[in-house]
Amino acid sequence: MKVWRLLLLPALVLLLAALALGLRHDPKQIPSPLIGKPLPSIAGQTLDGRPVDLASAGQGGPMVINVWASWCESCAIEHPVVVAAARQFGDRVAFIGLDYRDKQEPAAAWLAERGNPYRWSFFDPEGRAGIELGVYGVPETFFVAADGTVLAKHVGPLDPDGLRDYLKRLFGVS
């Protein structure tokens, strides 16, 4: 019985320390095993049916891959930010969409209604490309260098200042 009591205090201290570390963690900073590695080659189709490979999406330039869906309320909040950034920086950075676990008709209608900031949007109805990228949910955004290296991942909706910061810090775009 005494041994149990002696082990209980250190176990509680370890548990409290783990909880304290977890509370200091920003949930938008979910680590990605892709950071610092080449974007995987993922073949598929665009929302309008053309064959594509996600790894060659930027065609030699930096790219922002925005994971979205027509059913996603946070995506609707974030979308005007992406549209504005694509208008301002789209000549220097390729904005690519990844339509995640969606249906084709509602997704196409959603973009037609709200504006389409993407050079094209990868259609991922079963979420297979999302699994390859390690997507936790939508929206998520990946920032990829001209050489195809994944530089950063943002989880959740982007705000204008945050997106501009990523573009400036990672790509030198301002």
Can you walk through the features of this model?
This protein has 174 residues and is an alpha/beta fold. The protein has a single domain, classed as Glutaredoxin (3-Layer(aba) Sandwich). It contains 5 helices and 7 strands. Strands 2-1-5-4-3-6-7 form a 7-stranded mixed β-sheet. Helix 2 links the parallel strand 3 and strand 4. The protein is elongated and about 70 Å long. The relative contact order is 0.20.
Q: In short, what is this structure?
A:
It contains 5 helices and 7 strands, in the order αβββαβαβαββα. The chain has 174 residues and is an alpha/beta fold. The mean pLDDT is 89.
Architecture blueprint of SSEs:
Elements: H1 2-24, E1 43-46, E2 51-53, E3 63-68, H2 73-89, E4 94-100, H3 104-114, E5 121-124, H4 128-133, E6 140-144, E7 150-155, H5 160-171
What structural class do you assign from the helix and strand content? alpha/beta
Q: Using the CA coordinates, give the radius of gyration.
A: 20 Å
Helix content: 25-40%
Instruction: Report, as a whole number of angstroms, the end-to-end distance.
Output: 66 Å
